[in-house]
Every structure is written in C-alpha cells, then in structure tokens.
## 1
Amino acid sequence: MSKEQVFLLPDVGEGLTEAEILQWSVQVGDSVEINQVIVEVETAKAAVELPSPYAGVVGTLHAKEGETLPVGKPLITVLGDVSGASDVTESPSTDAATAPDREALLVGYGPQEGSGRRRRRRPVAPPAQQSPAPTPVQAPAAAPATERTAAKPPVRKLAKDLGVDITVVTPTGPGATVTRDDVRRAAEAEVVAAEAPKLETPEATATATATATATVSAETRIPIRGVRKHTAAAMVASAFTAPHVTEFMTVDVTATMRLRDTVAARREFRDLRVTPLLFVARALLLALRNTPETNASWDEPAQEIVLKHYVNLGIAAATGRGLIVPNIKHADRMSLRELAEALAALTSTAREGRTTPQSMMGGTITITNVGVFGVDTGTPILNPGEAAILAVGAIRRTPWVVTDASGAETIEPRWVTQLALSFDHRLVDGQQGSQLLADLGAFLHDPGLAML
C-alpha cells in the first residue's frame, strides 16, 4: 500500500517567501532515501540543496527548473510503502533500523557525498503465478528518465531567454557541458532554419546567418530573481531609508605590505593565502574598539540604537549569481591566523556557490574590496541593518612625500590605497565616523600602533 507524502517548500532562511528551482537531482519514478539531496533552489540569499524528508518513489515534481515557487507550496510528492514491505529499501526493516540516523534535515542541508546522490529505479515485480483473472486497466507507463543535459544555471537561463531547447544543443564545454556560445549558436541556427524556405543561394544563407547572429546578440533579457532580486531591493531600501555619509582617506600602507610579507613567510601561515584584506579586516576590528557606535543597528519601531557587543564582519563577494555578503561570526574574538582561515573559507565557499543563508544573516559591519577590480575608490551603500561599510581601493605604487625624523621631506615610491567609509548618520555622527576612519588609517600606516 502506497501513501502520498508531500514535501512543501520550506523557509530555509529568515522570512524568505519564495525560491527558484535551479536543478532537480531526481525524476519521477526514482527511488529516494531520507536526507538524499533532491533539488537545488535559489533563494533571495543563496543557492541551497534540499534533502528529502521521506523515503520512497518520486511520484510528482510540482515545479519545473527555472520556475519560482512560493514557500509552503508543494515541492515534491513521494510515494511511500506503508505496508511493511517497501520496494525501495534493501529489506523491510531497513528504515526502522536506521530511523534515528536518518532524521530528515528540513533546514535545507543534506549529505553532500555518498549514496545521497544515487538513483535507483523502482523494481518491477515479476508476474504473479495464479489463476486467470480479468485484466485490470493499466495506467500509462511513465516515460523513461532521460539523461539530464549538463549546463550551469546562467546558461540555462540564457537558453530560456532565447527560446532554445537546451536538451538538443550540442555541448562543447568541459565534460560535455553546454556553454553560452553553444546556446547562442543554436539560437542562430534556429533563426536561419526559420528563414530556410526563402533562401535560394549560398550568399543568401550567409547573409541570413549574419543577420541572425546580430539579432540574437543585440540584446539579452535577464530575469531578476534570487540573490540579484534581493540585492536590488535591499540596496534601494538602504539608499532611501538610511541617510548615508561617505568619507574618504588616502593612506600610505607600505608598512602593512611589509608586515604582510613577514607574516606570509612564517611557518604557521605558509598553508594560507595572506592578502592585504586580512590586515585591513584586522585594523578595522581594532578601530571599532574606540567607536562602538559604528558597530550598531537602528531599531525603527522602538526608535533606539542597538549597540552590538560582537562583530560579525561581512565581506562582499562577487559571484555568478550576483553580489552576496556572508559574514564571519565573532570576528573580533579571532587571532590573525583564525581570521585568515575564516576569510579563505568564506571566499572559497562563495566562489563555489555554496554560501548558506545563515552565513549571510546577522552581519554588523561590512568590507567591500573594490581594489581587486583595479578600482581606486567608490561610495559603498550600507547593508540594511548595519551602521557602516568600508570600501578598500586598489593598492598601488605611488609617488609619496615622506618626512623623516628630522623633518626633511623626500618623494619616494610607496604603497598607497584609498579608503571610503559610508555610515548611517542616524547612528553615527561626523566625529564618530571620522574617528573610525582615522584610527583605521593609522593602524594601516603604522601596524605597530596595535601594540599600544
């Protein structure tokens, strides 16, 4: 006897209302186990893999890839055998024996390796040996599962925008994956094919191909969903809610760059990538001690300033799905080595698209490193709920006036960067914001001040 078990799309963050289906890991007719990853979805905060809370056979997928589904709506129906002789487990007692170890993880994180990815087809029972009986009406057989075309979500979106069936596109990417160029070529071919009855000469065909290429490449419409949609709404809300003030400072960071070389050569740091951002983050954490008002939030209903006695340091990261800002929890309690490890883990996770919604919640202050793009400075917009954000520009060799101990001035090539600090003027006044920026600049100019 089979029982329909419907898994509703859960809220995998704080108050999320919808998620886009990026990629199904199962198809109708597949066998699934508890905690087996069944689908990857993109919320307003991150891409998340959802595990199945049920064991059985997939009966219905309630949404297609690329479709946006509201939280609380049916996501998948699993047909479970409740007769005690399940046809999807190794033995009738398997589920009961392992139930404590296979509790469903409904927060959106299942096992990443092992049998969780395995698909087993539902076994077909042999014909029963019994006396003839009236032939029952058979339901139409489900179509056999086909091998899924390998392509990244942005490529699938491009194919959808151009009206291309990605399953018939010839892949040329690594591992037989479909690339953007593959999709564009397929779109061009479809345009040429549509014009085929009108073409009579090779010259006409070439002209049509060129025209098709120009038509397809002229513009691309990208639906705003998931992370980009959330970021756009948050930035607009921030810009028109919090009164921004931005101050700038140009700093000689030659001593910090020397310190970076010294630290990178130490044995305990040799397995880590030691970057200038590590020292900027450390300097900011030290500067916050003198101006705790810049590590705060504004409670609008209560009309109160909430000072935070911990620092969850946000690091802006550019990903294929847009800009995200995961944060390092309690960064102010970390040693330099621990901070370096946390930065490396945060960057790697963001680059691989594995940032979780939880890691982007609760930030108190943010750093955005625009210098990695060769940009000198900018006016950063506050993350909603935070009092300040720091933009760090490119660190360049620049002619600089240097004054020695006797007061003599010389012009020397130095490592120089620009800092831009935006803050919410409801929480932070000009003196406090200026103090934070001045202290930060002082620590980067002379890291030895941290010893005082």
Note: Confidence is low (pLDDT under 50) at residues 82-146.
## 2
Amino acid sequence: MAEGERGAALVPAVAAGAWVSVPPDWRRLYEEACERAEAAEARAEELKQAALAARCDAGGWRWQFESARRKRLAA
C-alpha cells in the first residue's frame, strides 16, 4: 500500500471489473460514530435509572424484612 493510500478502501469498479482504491467517507463514519455514542449514552442512562430503581426496591424489601423480624422477636 502506497503512503497516500493509507485508510483507503478497496471497492470493485463497476465498469472496469477491477479493484479501485477509494478514500473512506469520513463524514459518514463520524456521524455513525456519533450516533453509536449517543445510543450508548442513552443506554447507560437507562441502566443507571434501572439500578436506582432496583436499589430503592431492595431498600423497601430490607425495611419490610427487618420490621417483620423485630415483630417476630418481640412476640
């Protein structure tokens, strides 16, 4: 690969039937990377909210368990 062809992709030439070196579409690659990053951030936020909800539920169950234990020991 020549020095100037670094990062270029090989694609078939339609008319010639040979492989031609075409530079990558950097704007499209950047936009795809941004979309993936935004999707990952949204998923991270969903997981963060789910973890918070799970901790709240666990705290409620723990309180209920301890309350039942106190009542049982008092009886």
Note: The radius of gyration is 29 Å.
## 3
Amino acid sequence: MLKPKKSLGQHFLRDHNIIRKIVGSLHAGELDEVVEVGPGEGALTDYLYPSFPKLHLLEVDHRSVTLLKHRFSDATIHHASVLDTDWKSMLPSDEKKYIIGNLPYYITSPILFKVLDSGGLFEQAVFMIQKEVAERLVAKPRTKAYGILSVQTQLLSDTELLFNVSREVFYPKPNVDSAVISIIPKKEQPDVDIAYLKKVIRTAFNQRRKKLSNAISTLVTDLSGISIDLNKRAEELEPEEFVLLTKELLQK
C-alpha cells in the first residue's frame, strides 16, 4: 500500500462497488485501446486489466510505476505526466481509443481540455472529478454553475454526469464529494476559429454581470449588426449562440 502524496493530489478509492460502476461506464470493447490516467495503487486497473488487453497506464509517481509493473506486467506503462503527453505519439494505432481515470482535483480542467482538444482521438472519456466541477460541465444557461467550462465542454462534446461519489470512500478522505462523468467528444468541432471562440467565451464570462455589449467591447468596437441580443449577459446564451456571435465578430 502506497502512502498518498499530497503534492500529487492523491486520494485512493477504496469502494469496489463504485470501482465496478466506474469501469462499467466505459463503452470500450476488448479490442480497443484504453488509457488509464493516474492509476496509483491500481484500484481501477484491477478491473480494467482482465478486460482490455491493450491497456495503457499513464502514471507520474515513480512509486506507483514500480508497483504497477509488478502487478500488471502485460499493460503498457508510461511514466509521464498526462499534461506533457503527446496522445498521437503515445497511441499511433488506428484502434478505437478510450480514456478513464480518477483525476487529481488540482489539474482536472487542464486534463479535460487536453482530451477535448485532441481532435476526436478518443471515443469516450470516463473521469471521476470534483462534484462541483462535474456540475459546471453539464450546467444549463441562467444557472450559477454555468460558465466558461460549461460552454466549451458542451460545444466540443456530449457530456453526462453519471453518478455522485461520497468522500467517505477515499483514503485519505478529501474535503469535497466527487462525481463520475462520461464525455463523448464530438467528431466535428464548431465551424469557426476555435481559438477565437474560446477568447469570446472567456471575455464574455470574465465580466458575467455586465451586458454582452459591455463585456465584449474590448474585442470589437463596432457591434452594429450583431444578431445576438447584446443586452443579455453571458450566462443567458446557449452554447451554440457563442458560435454565432464569434462568426459575426470575425466578420467585423
């Protein structure tokens, strides 16, 4: 048993019913490639290993790497940070690819965006993350949780909050509850400059209390002819309306 490292945000899952439920949420078949992010002691790996011969374990903690090599000798183990990983170099085959993991809370958003920005490489991601973040991913307009993460995630994927997980099933016990989400990246991204779309979304929500006409005035001075109601606030727009707004701003 490993001693959890606080610096790596490690909280080891102990409930086997929850583990089975998480693994059961993955749509992968036995011929598909499956990547597990941060396997730690191998709680999820115990259930993934027998079912997926093409299993990749991506782990930054050298202690875990040693343990995993001993316990799961047929898996492909990568001693690396998920944020530094080049997916296409790591997974060059044409097989369908899936990704799963209990994500460290402190790098959840960067990992989510790395998966979403991978160009549809993955068929599905199943992640356990902080409950509050999961609720933001699926939040609807005109709610407090709706924001940058909600809009970007919903434009780039079909995301579902599957179930909540109590903090009581981890060691050490975190200060927050968790939730398991399924993310199915969309094969086709919005037909607009994605970098500028993200800039528009970020600019609008950075001043979410202001009307859009004020919030996005730093991007374009001439807002005449914009079809979106600029008296609305960012939190009132549907994700698709940000795409339309971006297209119209690019024409200025």
Note: The radius of gyration is 20 Å.
